[in-house]
Structure formats: structure tokens, C-alpha cells
Specification:
The structure holds two protein chains of two kinds. Chain A contains 15 helices and 13 strands. Chain A is about 35% helix and about 15% strand. Chain A has two domains: about 1-145 and about 280-355, D-Maltodextrin-Binding Protein, domain 2 (3-Layer(aba) Sandwich); about 145-280 and about 360-380, D-Maltodextrin-Binding Protein, domain 2. Chain A is globular and about 60 Å long. Chain A is α/β, with parallel strands linked by helices. Helix content of chain B is about 75%, strand content about 0%. Chain B has helices at about 5-15, 25-35, 35-65, 85-90, 90-125, 130-145, 145-155, 160-170, 175-180, 195-220, 220-230, 235-265, 270, 280-290, 295-315; strands at about 70, 75. In chain B, strand 1 and strand 2 (about 75) form a beta hairpin. The chains are: A alpha/beta, B mainly alpha. Chains A and B meet through helix 4, helix 10 and helix 15 of A and helix 5 and helix 14 of B.
Chain lengths: ~375, ~325
Amino acid sequence: MIARKLTAGTAIALLLTAQTGLAQITEVGAPEGQLNIVAWPGYIERGETMAEFDWVTKFEEASGCRVNVKTANTSDEMVALMNEGGFDVVTASGDASLRLVAGKRVQPVNVDLIPSWPTVDERLKQAPWYVVDGVHYGVPYQWGPNVLMYNTEVFGDQPPTSWNVVFEEMTLPDGKSNRGRVQAYDGPIHVADAAQYLMHHRPELGITSPYELNDDQYKAALDLLRQQRQLVSRYWHDAFIQMDDFKNEGMAASGTWPFQVNLLQADGVPVASVIPVEGATGWADTTMLHAEAENVNCAYLWMEHTLASNLQADLSVWFGANPVVPAACTDGRGMQTAEGCTKNGFDDFDKIRFWTTPVTRCASQGECVPYYRWVSDYIGVIGGR
Amino acid sequence: MSTPAATARAGAALPVLLAPRGAGDRLTALFWRRPGLLAALLVAPPLLWLAVVYLGSLAALLLQSFYSIDEFSGLVQRDFTLKTWAELFSPANLDIILRTVTMAAAVTLGAAVLAFPIAYFAARHARGRWKALFYLGVMLPLWSSYLVKVYAWKLILAREGIVTWAAEGVGASAVLNAVLALPVIGGNSLSTSYLGTWLVFLYVWLPYMILPMQAALERVPASMLEAAADLGASRWQAFRSVILPLALPGVIAGSIFTFSLTLGDYIIPQIVGTSARFIGQAVYQLQGTAGNVPLAAAFAVVPIVIMLVYLRIARRMGAFDAL
């Protein structure tokens, strides 16, 4: 009877509040003994790839939570794994996090239970990709740019300054065409890289955000990607296969994560990276808690660990990313230094257009092309259509 | 049914020649009286396996394809709709189907041409130790890990790989470049072209073509060839009108393997090739990464339908006559 008197909106609001109240825990109990994480490759290291990069062993010893990691190569893969269930936390990028919230696959996180929360970067504390209606659906994990990697032997003393090397056919400084010698990411979010390129080179299209495209802008981006298809011999999906291609396939340039650049450089492959004039897309990842997580206490302990330990500093060195706790750049808790943070783009936060899920009802214009069309159309573009 | 105690009393009351019957004896008697029962019991487990695990999962798959996916949250909506099937027939998805079928046909054709002389030699000329060596040679690649082989091929076919190196060594770079310059099948390097994908498919599935072919060739009776010779047929005529028709069922049996295996594979085109999707990859990506189980299920039905058609044609051509 009472419910009938309320408007539908209030009812939903009440329902949401009730859910929020139920889902959030109020204190961290005894650890369950294990923690299952979905993460990007290279994100959770326990010293097995390189002994000095380890931010898991100490956590396991201190908390008694055994960490199990399932890596995923694209945001779509992450969303799919979370939809399947069986995981506690995920390192979700901005193009996955809101989908997870909308799909009710993640639960609100009570940041008061995370002692190091106040140390988090002020630029991230209320970031729209994980804070919905004032409710925190996780804690920030790490962020960074998608850089342009190039072969220093091919480019010599004329390093590329624009993404045009991967979008337009041209003769590279070594005298040969770039046809067949560049790569592009095989995730649909790469459409945003094309849109960002157009933002700079074709201002008449009026693109204000590479994630919010109307039909005309979207069509222009797809045309650019079709042109790119002529240049790309293979799209990269797996970070390690891309590294192999830079070693054995004579690749000259590609958009990539700083992770591959670091590993290839450590391997003695002549590569370097740059953030071109058009700017860069980037990722800002959030540790999110599964709605049906079985190991909630371990998850909260882990979230505290991600902010307080050597993780922020060492991961940012390892991945070429930026800590979400500014102090990690300078306080010597790990290997990161102030110069290192600057090099990784810590001060370029405002220049990076972070991965966001494209939705129909977008902020900048009336109607935008939603993500599911990005997915199917990008499969078509790669297939030469 | 009488209890053992009752049986014992009855035994004490009446003089009988046989010892009291145990449960096993009674079971045997039951089977003797009803022979159908034993057969049914023996057949039931495999039949259940077939019905539940094989056909049941196929039916579940088919059912999934009539669901659709919520475009934002990526969650499956369990309402009956034909939307997913309409999506399957979009141009980009038809491309994927066509691409896969073309590749499967090309691999099958290549395998048949390449396998025939090998199988012929093994069936009609190799003897004793040579024959053992032949079997070993054909089977050996099947014993090593499939992934290792495919990764090895990626390196072999890479632009800076052994094939390019060898071509340079013998001065055949121009030939290799000319082949790579071919439209559609060519590319930047063998490992990023359809040609490379085809080569790796061919390598991996060839044994499945050779073995049935060889079995068929071995069954061609020598007497028929003698008769052909007696009637004045040349060796070519005997080959064309006697050996080839008799071996055809084996060729078709082999082609079923190579065709269906290529149709379903999703690993080779991901590691070697142009990144353009094949059916297997589409299923893997839609199911595993995009969470679009309905469309993945619709895609998965495609190879089943193609194979049903293929098997029908194969049956017409006598591929199963020897079964």
C-alpha cells in the first residue's frame, strides 16, 4: 500500500539505496584464504617474469590469501569473464567498468574500510568511470597512455610525431613504404584512436570526444580504419605475439602499451615510444569487486594492498604506467621516481582521453553510435569490408 | 520374488538336483528369457551419452541462438527472438562464413593433391621396414603439441624467418616476392597472408587425409589391375578407370576430416594470417570475449549445417560404402 503511493522514481531510488546498503560490508572480517583476480597481462606479477617485480608474494604472506590470476587481453574479455562469474576482483578499464556496473556484475565498495584511500590521487577520487551517483564501485588501480611504438632503426633520427604513420600510406625514413609494416589493436575500442586522429586533422567533423561519435563522425572513423586495413598486415591481440612481430616480422610502428615497449627494450630490440601530437587514448583501470564475490575480505585486503604497498610504484615501472597514489612516485616505497612518473605521463593526465564505453545517450551530442556497433563493424573492417 | 530364506525352505522341502540359485544365476536366467533386455542394458550408457552429451548440448546451443544480447551491459536476454539470426546474415558475418568455407575447400583440395601420391606410394610400393617408416613419418607430427607446431610455423613463415632466408640463399627472393604480391592470398609476409594460413592448415591436417586414402588404396585388389592389363589398358587408363574410382571413397573420407577440422579451427588463423576472422575465431571471440553467446551459438550452427550437406554429398559418392 505504501509502495503504491510512492512514485516509480522514488521506489527505484529506495531500492538502489537498499541494495547499496546490503551489498557494502561494514567491516573486514577474517580472510577467506584465496582471491581470484581477472587482470590485464603483466598487471599482477609475483616475481616469475622478473624476480625484482613482485607485488603478490608479500600480500599472500601477510594476509593468507592465495592470489589466483586469470589474464584477459581485451575489455570485452574481462566483461565476459565477470559475467561468467567465479572471480572476486577485476582490473577493469573505463570501457569495461560502466558496463560492469550497468550489468550489476560489481558491487559498491566501502572506501572507509580501505585505510589508504585518502592517499589516492585527487584527480581520480570521483572519476566518472567507476563512481556512479556518488557510489564508488571500486578503487583506482593504475593509469597510462596508449603510446606509439616505433622501430628506431627504421626511423633513425626522424622519430614519428604523428599517428599518421599507422593511418596514412607513406614512405618511412628508411625509404620504404609503411604498407604491411604497421599494426593496430584488434579491440573495437581502437575506433576511438581513429576518431582522435580525425579530431586533430579534420576539425570540420566536430568531434569533441573520440568515444562520442554521431553517425557521420563514426562513418569517417570507419573509413580511416578501412584505409588503415590496407597498411596493417596483422592486428595485435596478444601482447606477446605483438612483441614477436616486432622481432621477426620487421614491424615499423604500432599503437601499443608501454608494457611491450619496456619488455622489447629490455630484450635489446631497437624500439622507442612517443605520445604523438594528436594526443593519446589511455586507460584508467579500477579494481572492482564482483557482485557475488566469495572472498570479499581478501578482496578488501587486496584493495588496501594495491594502494599501500610497493605495488603502485613497481607496477608503474614495470608497465610504464602511472600510480594512482601520487606519493608512490617519490616516497621510495618501490622503484618509481619523480622523473619516471613524468616520463610515463603523470602530468599529462588531462591530455589523455581515457577509454570509455560508447553509449547511445552521450553527453556531448544528441545520439551516439553505441559500443555493440563498434564491435560488429570493427570485425567487418578487419575482414576487409 | 522370494527371499533367500524362503528359497532355502523350499529347497529343504523338495529334493532338487541343483544348488540354490544366487542373484547372479537369476539375472542370467532373466537375460536368457528376455534377450532384448541385455542388449538394451548394454546399449543404454553409450546411447545416453550420445543423446545427453552430444545431441543435448547441440540442442542447448541451438536454443541459445534464439536469445539476444543487451547491447550495453552485455548480458544475455532470455527471450525468444530471431534478431540474432538476422545478425548472422549481416554482410560482415557472411564474409566470415564464406572465408572459412573457401579456406576449408582449398585446404581439402590441397591435401588431396598432396596426399594422393604419398598414400599411393605407401599402399602399393612401400614394403616391410619402409612401410613402418612411412607410418611413423605420417603419424609423428600428430604426437607433438599442436600449439608448438603452429608457433613454429609462425616463425618459419615470418618475414625474417627461415623461408625468406632460404629463398635469399638460393636466389629465389624474386619468386617469393612475386607470390606475396598476388592479390588476396598474398601479403606482407607468408605469416601474415592467407597463403601462410593455408600452408599451416595443410601441414597440420595432412595426416588425416593420407591415412584413409591409403586404406582405400590398399583395398584395391591387384587382380583387377591385372585384368585391366590383360584387356589392354595402359597404366594411365588403369589408374583412371580402376584405381581412382575405387579409391574415391577414401579420398572423400579424408576430405571430411580436413574440411571439418579447418571449418572449426580458431587457433591457426589467429597466429598465422591476416587477422580476418574465421568461423572458429568468431565463435571464440563472441562467446569468450564479447560475451555474445547467442550470436556465437548461431555461428556454431553454421559448420554443422555445412557438414550435414557435405556428408550427404559424400554419401552419394560412396564414401561410407566400406563401413
